[in-house]
Write a structure and sequence with these properties.
Blueprint: E1 2-7, H1 13-16, H2 22-31, H3 34-39, E2 46-52, E3 55-62, H4 68-71, E4 81-84, H5 86-90, E5 97-104, E6 107-110, E7 119-122, H6 126-137, E8 142-144, E9 146-147, E10 158-159, E11 161-167, E12 170-171, E13 179-180, E14 183-192, H7 195-204, E15 217-221
Antiparallel strand pairs: 1-3, 1-4, 2-3, 5-14, 5-15, 6-7, 8-14, 9-10, 11-14, 12-13
Length: 223
Amino acid sequence: MYLSRVEIDVNNRAKTKDLTHLGAYHNWVEQSFPQEIAAGQRTRHLWRIDHLGGKKYLLVLSEAAPDLDQLAIYGVAGTAMTKSYDRLLDSIHEGKILQFRLTANPTYSIIKPGQKQGRVVPHITVAQQRGWLEKRAEKAGFQIVKQESVDSDDQEATLAFDIVNREWPMLHRKAGRGVRLSRVTFEGLLRVADVDDFKQTLTKGLGREKAFGMGLMTVIPEA
């Protein structure tokens, strides 16, 4: 697996004028793998947009390394880079505590009587979105770390994560009008509970709309 990143050239509007919706970002990612396109063998590429230090980045996780020239099409010159992700994956063990960042599309299904498939709707409130991640954690192979505040008389433990960004980017569907998707970014501390399930989460993503910048969780060892 490979983790790649490029700084998006937000100050060059002529270069990035096409990046007006999630589908355009999806196409950018797909075009960064020309060998797969030529071979007709497309694999899933997880990606997300990060806002860090006043800059905007495209982050991509993939089985094969991307073409850095293609990845840099909308990027600041010289900022496209890629590295192997396998060393991090191999270092994961049960009980390991990691800092995580996840951009996801928290949703649930409403099933009416007589219907086999439900209607997928987004969680709206912060409490609902936090609850979505809490419920998904166990099956995804991790536990969110619990913490107690030393500045409070209340000894009840809270979960060590926060929502750091919430937005509704546009997706233009092939048929019909565009829709806005709920995009939520979580940050916090987790403990690995099941190594195999957690590696699946890191490499396959968590939640819906993975083709459109949702589901990618990245981790680093706790400082």
